[in-house]
Amino acid sequence: MKILVATDKPFAKVAVDGIRSIVEGADHTLALLEKYTTPEELYAAVVDADAMIVRSDKVTKEVIAASQNLKIVVRAGAGYDNLDLTACTERGIVAMNTPGQNSNAVAELALGMMVYMARNTFQPGTGSELKGKKLGVHAYGNIGRLVAGIAKGFGMEVYAYDPFVSADVMTKEGVQCVNFAEELYANCHYVSLNIPANAQTKGSIGAALLSKMPKGGCVINTARKEVMNEDELAQVLEERQDLKYSTDVAPDNFALLKEKFGARVFATPKKMGAETAEANINAGLAAANQIVKFLATGDKTFQVNK
Ligand code: 3PG
Questions:
Q1: For residue 252, how many C-alpha atoms fall within 13 Å in the half-sphere facing its CB?
Q2: Buried-most residue among 14, 150, 163, 260 (CB within 10 A)?
Q3: pLDDT for residue 129
Q4: What are the tens digits of pLDDT across the range 271-300?
Q5: pLDDT at 88
Q6: Distance 283 CA to ligand 1 centre (A)
Q7: Best probe residue, ligand 1, of 55, 227, 272 (max atoms within 8 Å of C-beta)
């Protein structure tokens, strides 16, 4: 069968080599579409593919419609907000992600961004340290847990808010459970956003939460730019000259934010969270293994369109 890897932001070569060896080792054929610039290139490449691996590439209903043999699409990564799940389900196509495989890379970036903001984006002058500061982890999933663990190594006091995780789990890991998002923002110098982007969370981080942060508060967003209410963020940054925002990747109004707030805002030029060789290998190989297993046995572990 033909397995297409479609990545406008390609995997590291070592990951592609690993994917190839899994795919060809199971007597399938690998097709690569990298650095494409138009959706039409993806439509053409997917026509005869039986399976597809993507990263943040948009798998729209048009992509699904263009495919004739597609049985499975795997998002090599955690967030699957780029997949049109309804279109997949309507065509009986299994959609999966590879949860946890690139979490460490994202968590390390979150702490790196925190240091960068604490040191005033490396401008001369007096920065501050993370030690002794309070960190609020907004969503205690695979990434949130790793962020909490690394932050404890920095000597931070860690709190977490996640309605889907019990206080017991957090307590056992030395993290203080907070029952309301408002409480997390009101209490913490730093907040790390680790929520998925979905209908409930898009635009959900706005003035009501941000304005509650203590003096000098900083939000680190390695989740999705869409979870932030950009207009309200601009408004709060205007009203509160002490607040800071660091995000992977740039919000739509970033030019305006940068012009108005300078070093108080930072954005990566391209989504950097999972841009490590290790994350590429972990997520890419997991995706290839999941596809090979599904094609051989029908195994649907990690299906997200149930
Ligand atoms: C994820 O959801 O797994 C991350 O955002 C990684 O995205 P990427 O594969 O586009 O780097």
A1: 7
A2: 150
A3: 98
A4: 999 999 999 999 999 999 999 999 999 999
A5: 98
A6: 9
A7: 55
